Amino acid sequence: MNTQELLSPATQKSRPVVSFPASQPLQASTALRLGAVSTGLPRLDDAICPLSSEEQGEVSRGIPQGHVTEVFGPPGVGKTSLALNVVSSALRTGKKAIWIDTGSPLPRLRLREILQRSVQQSGSTQTVEELAQNLVYFRAQSLPHLLALLVRTPAGFPHDDCDLLVVDSASGPFPSYFPNATELKTRLAQSKSLDKNQVQWLMNRSANVTSDLANQLTKLASTHHMAILVINQTRTRIKGQTRATLCPVLAGGPWERCINTRIVLYRDFPTIEDNASCDVRFAEVMKRAGKLLASRLDENIVAFRIETDGLSLLESHPSSPIVQGQPEEVRELPIQRKRKVEEIADSQDEDDSDDDYGWADGDNAGLIEN
Question: Residue ranges under compositional bias (Acidic residues) (predicted)?
Answer without folding.
Answer: 344-358
